[in-house]
Amino acid sequence: MYKISKLLGNSEDLRHFLIFLLLLPFALLTPLLVEGQVLQQTPAAGQDTTLAAPDSVALSAPSGDIATTIKYAARDSILFDVEREVVYLYGDAKINYGTMSMEAAYIEIDYETNMLTATTLTDSTGKEVGVPVFTDGGETYAAKRIAYNYKSRRGRISEVVTQQGEGYIHAEVVKRNENNEFFGLHSRYTTCNLEHPHFYIGSQKFKVIPNDKVMSGPFNLVIGDIPTPLGFLFGLFPTPKAQKRSSGIQVPSFGENTRGFYLQDLGYYFAWNDYIGTLVQADIYSLGGYNIDAKTDYVKRYSYRGSFGLQYNFLKNDEADIAYSARSTNENLLPPTQRSIWIDWSHTPVQKPGRGRFSANVRAGTPGHQRVNYNSASNYLAAQFNSSISYQKTIPNSPFSYTINARQSQSNSPQRSRAAGDGSTVPGAGNMSFVLPDLSLSMTTVSIYELFSDAPSTGAWYENFTIGYNVRARNEVSNNIPARSFPGLTNFIGQTRADTTLPISFNNIQELWENGKREANHNLSIGLGNYKVFRFFNFSPSVSYGETWLDEKYTFSFDPDSQKVDIDTTNFGRVYQYAAGASLNTTIYGTAYIKGKRVEAIRHLIRPSISYNYRPDFGDERFGFYQEVMTGIASDNTARVQTLSRFRSGAPGSSMSSAMGFSIDNNIEMKVRSKTDTAATKFEKVTLINNLRLSSGYDFAADSFKLAPIRLTMNTRLFKMVDVTLASAFDPYRISTNDAGVARRVDEYYLDLRRLRLARVTTANLNLRTNLNPAARKTETTSPTNLPALQQDMDPLLPDYIDFKIPWTLALDYTLSYNRSLSNVVDIRQTFGMNGTLGITEMWQVSYNANYDFVNNNIAHANVNIHRDLHCWDMSIGWVPFGIMRGYNITINARSALLRDLKLTKRSRGNALYQ
């Protein structure tokens, strides 16, 4: 001990030396004792493998400033400065301290000042390597130098890059406080993930509250290192946690159309909570019009999701002239001033066993609203809009289920406007109909034997009998009230009212209800089993019964004074009908063995089927559904008598039916040797005809034209890529023309074997469809999730998404239709369509769609879309050169949803023809 003391010089050196000797074995053994803290690294080629095992130390927390164990490791070496109480880590240094971790080429731990310092190192080529990365509480920072006090939890970071939500912050100096907030000097905020971003928002000072918001002082937008004058006095950028929504302003777009200069989609989004949010937005036009739109999206996990939207539109057009009333062909012409509303509601439940299912799909509003405020060609061209609300439930442990429905439909074509009380004009009432309510109770088909007996089945023939039941009650109301009429009756008392279309309002509820139709339908089906006959045939008899209760029943009588028919109406009527039938079918297989070089065999599958149905003549007087009525006196003083239905609707047919139907289905397949099989032992199945069906019927009880039209349909696939569909109909009866040139069917068969005539073609349709790109045929057409910018624009001129994975696609469609009238007038229509995409480069994508009409020799519809991937930006160009949707749209916008309002849009779109 004396020699060691003389060598060290004083007692203080001796104390430090003894501490070092005590720590040395602990440092050597720690990598073996602390499991999971030694981080291995694969040595590079030519590298000394003796350095592959890093130094690693884990110190237990002493009583003092260190709150928990500090675990650290390094690939090259770990040095201890005992006198200064500093640890040096070289080469892939790593530190873990509680929730904090740090990685860098060089890390220094100062226990006296509680500081962690990390920097880069310079390799043999002079390049800086090992950029420090600091992580704490889910936040990550990358910088050239990091100084962090693990006691006060404050730090200073130089030349830092950190990610906050979808954005990245580059700062010259960052200071971090104990509240996990940090402040940046000379900062840049961007959503571009490159080291040198394409664009950024620059500001002298930034403050960041992690998982909450980023705030800045005065800022301006810099694109391509070129400062722009775009900016503001302060900036606020929300950075919520993943899938957490936040409220905020929606920046509008501007432009010009026939309604003047406009600001569109100016709004605010209210994020009430994680399950419901509301977007309120408005459009303002310089000519005085405006549009207000509110849409609420809601979701309850594992239960339902939906959205509810309400639009109010005021169209101001004081310059509407006579040309509009005359339905001018000017497509830019707008209707007179009007107000309109529109409701969109969609509610979709998650199906759960034993629970009811409530669903809604509502699209309703003022007639013509979608013609003026269209956002897609489908909305503009739709003949009508349908809405429905329903609740369905199956009663557990029973065959019963019930449904409650409410439905509404309205025409899309607006009516002529009428004057309003304030001097403006409002649209006339459009055609609307309501079915409210529509109730049904159903019993699934069950075995009659099991329904009435608990005894086990014995296999008797009567145990195959089944029964099913359904009852449905509905009330239908329409504002389109036709003049009172009775088929076949032209002279009756009270025939004064004309067709009327009533506005939908509370003042007209009573009249609408009185003119509505109410009925209840009962249907009972009885199955008599399925039996094998003659070994190869399936025989299935059946019986059905139906009954309808109606709210009106008529009794006719002739009034000799007025020489008209008087009609007495009661509030209840009952009609019923019943029928019986049977079907017989089988399957026939036939195989022809070819034994050729490639073709092994051809198989023909035939499925013939015959059915018979009988229904009595419910026009017979004993049923009371029809009445023979005297309607007047002829010129020869004889009474004119007609048979009239005593019900407004629902009466069964007034003639007996004894009809037989037949059909033959064919399937032809070929067995061929595989091209890749050299041993000729593997075979493939090739479909020549997928389904060829011939069907018709014969009514034995009909007075004339007993044979029904003959129908021939076929579908198959040629060369594994061309889908072929054929549908045709043939009239078996001859056509005759009288002296006046009027053509009519004659009860004589067209068949003439000497002239090789079988039947007269009335309609024929051929459709050929193919996709020439094999990769596109194999790829599921699901919308990718990495392009939100395109989905946000919602412009009809732009595609829903762009798929860069497929370099090109090309789909072709050809349709040929043939129609022949009674007067032998032939109408032939041919259309050819093509659509696809072309990836010019990895960043450029072009999609196209066009249809050509050969009859009119014009392009019926065409559009071209160009998309450019600008890394952190998207550029989309949409062009429709023809039709009501013609126009173009050019949009350049930031891809990130966080900066979705950072965009430039130029749009030119023709207005819909309001007719």
Automatic annotation (TrEMBL):
<dbReference type="GO" id="GO:1990351">
    <property type="term" value="C:transporter complex"/>
</dbReference>
<feature type="compositionally biased region" description="Low complexity">
    <location>
        <begin position="405"/>
        <end position="420"/>
    </location>
</feature>
<dbReference type="GO" id="GO:0009279">
    <property type="term" value="C:cell outer membrane"/>
</dbReference>
<feature type="domain" description="LPS-assembly protein LptD central">
    <location>
        <begin position="214"/>
        <end position="733"/>
    </location>
</feature>
<feature type="region of interest" description="Disordered">
    <location>
        <begin position="404"/>
        <end position="427"/>
    </location>
</feature>
<dbReference type="InterPro" id="IPR050218">
    <property type="entry name" value="LptD"/>
</dbReference>
<dbReference type="InterPro" id="IPR045659">
    <property type="entry name" value="LptD_2"/>
</dbReference>
<protein>
    <recommendedName>
        <fullName>LPS-assembly protein LptD central domain-containing protein</fullName>
    </recommendedName>
</protein>
<dbReference type="Pfam" id="PF19838">
    <property type="entry name" value="LptD_2"/>
</dbReference>
